[in-house]
């Protein structure tokens, strides 16, 4: 009788998802987009941030107003276990994660069990990059759990294949002269993968490097989850998704998330006027560059941005700067205040040329910039969000990957998708100049064909009946079932 009563009460529960991102700008941004998509689909969402990250978010973005439109949405916070005055810089990511492993797990359990996180939590979506402890906890408490990865499927597949690569003798990498060696043991990538294209965390020179074990353990956790969400689409990474599904059958490719959300918001009559753009947690967005772009000819500007984490040496800064100026093209360059650590004196002729045909900005409204008619190319670090935003906007890329998934993303851009040029591991003013001219002039028509087609496929995937649209519907169906 008691069981019957319990199951009847449970049947009435509306599904509520707790979304728990890794506390870093790119990760929170993507998961906020997922949260909004789910809210639009009528799912109740609790977005769980660390206290520190949430304070940053409130400082720069009006997210609480943005989400106030959704009655079932709530923000909650949790401690990462570090003192308030800790820098939590990019270099200390491992320290933050280790602290969360120790401190956050018991607090999260207490929040779930005591009802602080609302006692109607029916499903947890965690960032699969770090939350092994949340997976253990969900299994222990019998709550369905789904992993979300913010990087490309081709990167995740490399991570899944670490053991195969080692068994085939692909790792370790023996110095710089070994970087062009082919890696033929990753299914689906046999013909074009070199050591220098591997995601940076597995480019090790020593098999006892702890990163290898950590990557393999973290990635394999996703096989224990009830599903895996990826920010990609079938026409872009279908062959790799096929391989991932042999290990994680319930893999939902629902991207590009920013385009998916934009379309769903536009179709949602109740809140169609809300501006849609990336939430910037760390930097003030300077929109003046859009006015500058307005006065430039169509497709004449190369946009340069290396994302939120990349740093440049003084030497690299000068090589890019000279290359850009010598290309004689107009350029819009995002130079974050924290991007170059060393003091740099800029020669007068560079400053003069920059005033003539360049525009520098600390942080740009990137989606709008890439969608602007004056932009004809993107010099990028190949971060996954930047890559997807460029694909949707139909802008060809010159890729200068920095770390993480970027080396494999840039290989795909250059070699597989033919959406641009992979400049990887080179930073030389003559090459920068040549590649800009190749992209914007010599090979412009060739890239225009491939970028226009891929942009069309990206938009199609998130439109009614498209693959990401359907995959998202299946995800929502699954989440709804967790409430029954
Ligand atoms: N971005 C932005 N303005 C800028 C530079 C970047 O809004 O001036 C955004 C960009 O649109 C993307 C994100 O920051 O959504 C960068 O993410 P990505 O995955 O490309 O790189 P990461 O910053 O994680 O290295």
Automatic annotation (TrEMBL):
GO molecular function: 7-deoxyloganetic acid glucosyltransferase activity; quercetin 3-O-glucosyltransferase activity; quercetin 7-O-glucosyltransferase activity
Its EC number(s): 2.4.1.-
Pfam families to which the protein is assigned, alphabetical: Glyco_transf_N (PF26168), UDPGT (PF00201)
Substrates-to-products reaction catalysed: 7-deoxyloganetate + UDP-alpha-D-glucose = 7-deoxyloganate + UDP + H(+)
Domain of life: Eukaryota
InterPro entries linked: Glyco_transf_N, UDP_glucos_trans, UDP_glycos_trans_CS
SUPFAM superfamilies: UDP-Glycosyltransferase/glycogen phosphorylase
Domain (Glycosyltransferase N-terminal) ranges: 17-50
Keyword annotations: Glycosyltransferase, Transferase
Sequence similarity: Belongs to the UDP-glycosyltransferase family.
Protein name according to UniProt: Glycosyltransferase
């Amino acid at each position: 009788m008691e069981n019957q009563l319990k199951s009847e009460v449970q049947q009435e529960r509306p599904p509520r998802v707790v979304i728990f991102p890794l506390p870093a700008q790119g990760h929170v941004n993507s998961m906020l987009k997922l949260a909004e998509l789910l809210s639009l689909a009528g799912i109740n969402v609790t977005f769980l941030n660390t206290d520190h990250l949430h304070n940053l978010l409130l400082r720069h973005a009006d997210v609480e107003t943005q989400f106030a439109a959704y009655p079932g949405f709530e923000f909650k916070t949790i401690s990462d276990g570090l003192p308030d005055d800790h820098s939590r810089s990019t270099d200390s990511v491992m320290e933050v994660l280790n602290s969360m492993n120790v401190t956050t797990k018991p607090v999260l359990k207490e929040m779930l069990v005591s009802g602080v996180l609302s006692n109607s939590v029916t499903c947890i979506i965690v960032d699969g990059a770090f939350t092994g402890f949340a997976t253990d906890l969900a299994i222990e408490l019998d709550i369905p759990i789904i992993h979300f990865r913010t990087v490309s499927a081709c990167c995740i597949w490399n991570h899944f294949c670490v053991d195969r690569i080692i068994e085939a003798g692909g790792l370790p990498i023996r110095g710089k002269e070994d970087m062009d060696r082919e890696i033929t043991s990753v299914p689906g990538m046999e013909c074009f993968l070199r050591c220098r294209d591997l995601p940076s965390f597995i480019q090790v020179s020593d098999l006892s490097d702890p990163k290898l074990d950590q990557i393999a353990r973290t990635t394999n956790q996703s096989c224990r989850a009830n599903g895996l969400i990826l920010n990609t689409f079938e026409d872009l990474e279908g062959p790799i998704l096929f391989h991932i599904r042999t290990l994680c059958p319930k893999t939902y490719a629902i991207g590009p998330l920013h385009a998916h959300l934009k379309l769903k918001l536009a179709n949602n009559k109740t809140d169609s006027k809300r501006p849609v753009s990336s939430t910037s947690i760390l930097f003030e967005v300077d929109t003046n560059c859009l006015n500058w772009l307005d006065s430039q000819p169509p497709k004449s500007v190369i946009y340069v941005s290396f994302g939120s984490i990349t740093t440049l040496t003084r030497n690299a800064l000068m090589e890019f700067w000279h290359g850009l100026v010598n290309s004689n093209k107009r350029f819009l360059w995002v130079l974050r205040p924290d991007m170059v650590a060393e003091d740099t004196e800029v020669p007068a002729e560079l400053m003069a040329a920059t005033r003539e045909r360049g525009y520098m900005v600390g942080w740009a409204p990137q989606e709008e910039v890439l969608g602007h008619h004056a932009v004809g190319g993107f010099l990028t670090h190949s971060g996954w969000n930047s890559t997807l935003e460029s694909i949707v906007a139909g802008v060809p890329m010159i890729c200068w990957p920095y770390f993480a998934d970027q080396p494999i993303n840039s290989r795909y851009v250059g070699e597989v998708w033919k959406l641009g040029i992979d400049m990887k591991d080179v930073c030389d003013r003559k090459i920068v100049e040549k590649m800009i001219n190749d992209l914007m002039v010599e090979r412009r028509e060739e890239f225009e064909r491939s970028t226009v087609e891929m942009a069309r496929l990206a938009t199609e995937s998130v439109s009614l009946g498209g693959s990401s649209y359907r995959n998202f519907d299946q995800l929502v169906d699954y989440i709804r079932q967790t409430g029954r």
